[in-house]
Design a protein that fits this description.
The protein contains six helices and six strands; from the N terminus they run E-H-E-H-H-E-H-E-H-E-E-H. It has a six-stranded parallel sheet with strand order 3-2-1-4-5-6, sandwiched between helices. Helix 1 packs parallel to helix 6. It is globular, with a radius of gyration of 16 Å. The relative contact order is 0.18.
Length: 186
């Protein structure tokens, strides 16, 4: 299975220091939904792994989160795309859970749900903790210079991190790479 794991806020949609709390505040970044659709059309399954500590902080409820995701799914469908699953950590940082990025718990859940090892699975995020979580699960880390990294790449990126301007640039990279013929074994 061709799987890619994306962060949500700052990668697919605009991020906010005050948290994205309502469907009205959930606004896709330019070209991000179309990038997901292009990945889907090339046979990629797209899954989201997202910290949603606004739930644990009491800033919004699960109904609001579901409404945000319903908006995302509807907007994706309008451009011919889809997200296969959304995994999120609802905990505040003080709860010391294992699913909050930079820990790999969400990625472990994704691997278990899809019955696969995540070694080499591309993961894309806009923050160091997104990439640390993915790298800890064996994923191939990709940073987008949007959201938290709009002013530049953070220090301490996991080894092998590839940096892209945004999600459409990542999709271009992945689609071009996967279109290359495999070397012939002799």
């Amino acid at each position: 299975m061709k799987l890619v794991i994306l962060d949500r806020d700052g990668t697919i949609n605009s991020d906010s220091d005050d948290f994205v709390k309502t469907p009205d505040e959930w606004l896709p970044l330019p070209g991000s939904l179309e990038a997901i659709a292009r990945l889907n059309h090339a046979g990629w399954h797209v899954v989201i792994a997202s910290n949603q500590s606004g739930l644990g902080r009491g800033l919004f409820d699960v109904a609001s989160l579901n409404a945000m995701h319903a908006k995302m799914h509807k907007m994706l469908a309008a451009v011919g795309g889809r997200v296969d699953a959304v995994f999120y950590c609802p905990h505040s940082p003080e709860e010391s859970c294992t699913c909050r990025k930079p820990l790999p718990g969400l990625f472990e859940q994704i691997g278990a749900r899809f019955g696969m090892q995540l070694a080499g699975v591309p993961t894309v995020g806009d923050s160091l903790r997104d990439l640390q979580a993915g790298a800890a699960a064996g994923c191939e880390p990709h940073l987008v210079l949007t959201g938290k990294s709009a002013k530049g790449a953070p220090d301490g990126l996991p080894a092998g991190t590839t940096v892209h301007a945004d999600l459409p640039a990542f999709a271009d990279f992945l689609l071009e790479r996967s279109a290359r013929p495999l070397p012939m074994a002799i």
